């Protein structure tokens, strides 16, 4: 099931992006990736609004664009995790976000990493991919 | 310090201020970014001007000829633009004291043969085709809207016209949406289930060229009375009379005397209109340019009429006439007087009368229950108060209480009394549903939803989902499934979505969700996909405000939808429109910290500039 994950910083800058495409759909056109980025960017408006009305960090499904659903998770330091997905999977996505949050916190504890900067670490990338395969 | 930089993103506002904003208490205490916006006022203005009293206008042949010499098609064509925007005075009783509200009103002047049902118009058209060779534009000003294909063509032409002619830095790409909205609401068809297009007043016009003005007025009156209105249209009208004095060819003294005679015969609703002559202008030593002023064509032409103008090669979008300034002022004064002294008081009197007469039918639930229980428990005394629906003609005759109640509700709506109007619509829904009068039911639900939105009180999320959305859903379904009138369903959807999007609070997302249904209907096919994307961007952009806080704003959403519509317009081979949409998106994305977005938008802009050369 194809999804797109983006971790967005406080200035609308992308900190980390990941296209999760199962092997079966690998042959399909990936030209739509630009559209994913624009869709994620557009849903930031709704996150900024939803953060004041919701108590929890997991904001659930905040938006929909045609058949793509957008779920979001907001960290206490105002970093947004946005996931674009086609199928509904609330529990799986919630667990995914929570574990992603823990991975992100571990990243933050690295003194050489400045918050809001892009994450280039391959270890992080590998862990996120494994997590995605497991939960999504 | 690196840790502190990550806190830059925190927005420092007090939670109390935001909680009020989020949950919306009293509208007047709302922060400025949640109060009335220009977009809201514009849309409400359109709705108010669309649902306005219709005035049948009859003129003598001399009057028509006189105005044809001035460059108009006939008298109705001449009067129409002056009905668009009139200052009206509504009386308000606040704690026993009379107060006046100054509001913008509108009057729709229609010719006599505009008061026909669409079926009659179709029959007449077919009958005419065989022997009539006069140009179609002669009948253009009485054609109502209702044809979706025509609407599509007119909208497409407007988009082309708009993108070709609007040049400059800050062109607003939201104009096509407002134009479409106006076209959707203009030319309301004369139908049984809604009475907005039924005439409220009649206007008889005689000029000073006529030898016997009284006789001419009687002739026109007879013509009016013998006209074949559809059987569901009530003939209760207020009659107004205008005596048009042409200063160039007639003597003022004689005209004034004739007018006095007319006034003595007909009573209060007579108005004297004086057209100035060149003699006055020369005498005052004013040049032609000073004296003349431009008058735009009426904004409320129906799509069918615009279609005919397009086909005959006239300029459908930018009609302008030149008239002497004193004449313009004189006409505006007469129309103002007519509205405030004849028409509004008449409507208010009707409302009073009907409210008294129909209070029994609008009674409490208990009285209705009693009637119903009597119906079930005693076969002999079936109540004759309800069930006047005539399935053969699918209408209620105008003297039946249901039709009168509907008329009362529509009058309340036109007089800006939305609360009472929505109460009456609500009470009528049950009646129509029991009688299986589907068109009436759908229309009532539509108007109930619209009048809910026109009221100024706040609609919470709960109220919206419990009351408003089911109304809209049922109305659309009934229109489409049972009445087979997709035009009205589209009208209901677009009106409710537009009004909903400008409400204070967070209703714009719901509004866009409903509006996206138009994609599912596949309305207007490929042009539609591009056009609805632009409309959605317009709906989001109505939330733009100058304030610094970003709560409730949808800048990124607006930019995204403009970008989507740019790509659709490009695929439809309309690069100018695409360019207009791209300008807004470009402003938002070029300063973004997201590199790929910036690069993509730059490439798109270069591609467009290349294709525009």
From TrEMBL, chain A:
Record-level GO BP terms: endoplasmic reticulum to Golgi vesicle-mediated transport; protein-containing complex assembly
Top-level taxon in the UniProt lineage: Eukaryota
Pfam families tied to this protein: Sedlin_N
GO cellular component, one term: TRAPPI protein complex
Signal peptide: none
Record-given protein name: TRAPP complex subunit Trs20
UniProtKB/TrEMBL annotation, chain B:
InterPro entries: TRAPP_III_complex_Trs85
Pfam families reported in the protein's UniProt record: TRAPPC-Trs85
CC annotations in GO: TRAPPIII protein complex
UniProt name for this protein: TRAPP complex subunit Trs85
Source species taxonomy: Eukaryota, Fungi, Dikarya, Ascomycota, Taphrinomycotina
């Amino acid at each position: 099931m194809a999804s797109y994950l983006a971790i967005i910083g406080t200035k609308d800058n992308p900190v980390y992006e990941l296209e999760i495409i199962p092997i079966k759909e690998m042959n399909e056109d990936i030209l739509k990736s630009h559209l994913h980025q624009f869709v994620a960017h557009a849903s930031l408006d709704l996150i900024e609004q939803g953060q004041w009305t919701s108590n929890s960090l997991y904001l659930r499904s905040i938006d929909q664009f045609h058949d793509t659903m957008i779920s979001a998770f907001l960290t206490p330091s105002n970093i947004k995790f946005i996931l674009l997905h086609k199928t509904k999977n609330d529990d799986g996505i919630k667990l995914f976000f929570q574990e992603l949050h823990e991975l992100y916190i571990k990243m933050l504890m690295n003194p050489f990493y400045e918050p809001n900067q892009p994450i280039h670490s391959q270890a992080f990338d590998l862990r996120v991919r494994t997590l995605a395969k497991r939960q999504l | 310090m690196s840790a502190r930089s990550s806190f830059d993103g925190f927005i420092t506002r007090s939670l109390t201020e935001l909680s009020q904003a989020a949950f919306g208490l009293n509208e007047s205490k709302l922060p400025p970014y949640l109060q009335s916006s220009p977009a809201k006022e514009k849309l409400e203005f359109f709705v108010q001007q669309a649902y306005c009293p219709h005035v049948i206008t009859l003129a003598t042949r001399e009057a028509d000829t006189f105005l044809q010499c001035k460059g108009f098609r006939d008298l109705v064509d001449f009067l129409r633009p002056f009905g668009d925007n009139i200052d009206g005075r509504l009386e308000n009783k606040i704690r026993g004291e009379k107060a006046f509200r100054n509001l913008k009103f509108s009057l729709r002047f229609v010719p006599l043969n505009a008061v026909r049902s669409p079926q009659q118009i179709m029959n007449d058209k077919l009958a005419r085709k065989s022997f009539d060779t006069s140009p179609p534009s002669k009948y253009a000003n009485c054609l109502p809207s209702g044809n979706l294909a025509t609407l599509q063509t007119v909208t497409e032409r407007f988009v082309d016209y708009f993108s070709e002619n609007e040049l400059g830095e800050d062109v607003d790409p939201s104009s096509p949406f407002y134009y479409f909205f106006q076209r959707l609401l203009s030319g309301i068809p004369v139908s049984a289930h809604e009475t907005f297009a039924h005439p409220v007043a009649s206007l008889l016009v005689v000029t000073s060229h006529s030898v016997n003005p009284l006789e001419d007025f009687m002739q026109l009156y007879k013509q009016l009375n013998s006209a074949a209105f559809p059987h569901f249209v009530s003939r209760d009208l207020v009659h107004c009379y205008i005596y048009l004095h042409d200063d160039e060819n007639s003597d003022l003294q004689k005209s004034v005397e004739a007018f006095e005679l007319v006034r003595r015969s007909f009573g209060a609703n007579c108005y004297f209109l004086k057209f100035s002559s060149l003699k006055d202008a020369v005498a005052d030593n004013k040049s032609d340019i000073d004296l003349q002023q431009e008058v735009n064509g009426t904004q409320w032409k129906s799509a069918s009429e615009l279609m005919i103008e397009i086909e005959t090669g006239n300029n459908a979008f930018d009609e302008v006439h030149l008239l002497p300034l004193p004449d313009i002022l004189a006409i505006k004064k007469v129309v103002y007087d007519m509205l405030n002294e004849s028409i509004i008081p008449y409507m208010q009197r009707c409302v009073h009368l009907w409210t008294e007469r129909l209070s029994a039918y609008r009674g409490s639930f208990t009285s209705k229950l009693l009637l119903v229980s009597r119906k079930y428990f005693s076969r002999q005394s079936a109540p004759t108060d309800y069930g006047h629906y005539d399935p053969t003609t699918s209408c209620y005759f105008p003297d039946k209480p249901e039709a009168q109640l509907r008329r009362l509700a529509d009058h309340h709506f036109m007089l800006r009394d939305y609360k009472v109007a929505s109460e009456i619509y609500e009470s009528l829904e049950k009646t129509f549903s029991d009688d299986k009068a589907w068109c009436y039911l759908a229309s009532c639900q539509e108007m109930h939803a619209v009048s809910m939105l026109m009221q100024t009180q706040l609609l919470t999320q709960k109220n919206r989902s419990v009351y408003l959305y089911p109304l809209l859903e049922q109305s659309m379904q009934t229109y489409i499934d049972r009445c087979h009138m997709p035009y009205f369903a589209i009208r209901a959807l677009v009106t409710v979505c537009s009004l909903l999007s400008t409400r204070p609070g967070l209703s714009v997302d719901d509004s866009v969700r409903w509006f996206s249904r138009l994609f599912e209907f596949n309305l207007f096919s490929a042009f539609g996909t591009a056009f609805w994307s632009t409309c959605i961007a317009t709906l989001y952009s109505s939330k733009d405000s100058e304030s610094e806080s970003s709560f409730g704003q949808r800048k990124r959403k607006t930019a995204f939808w403009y970008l989507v519509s740019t790509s659709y317009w490009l695929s439809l081979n309309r690069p100018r429109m695409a360019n207009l949409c791209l300008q807004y998106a470009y402003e938002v994305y070029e300063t973004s910290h997201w590199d790929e977005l910036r690069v993509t938008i730059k490439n798109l802009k270069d591609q467009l500039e290349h294709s525009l050369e």
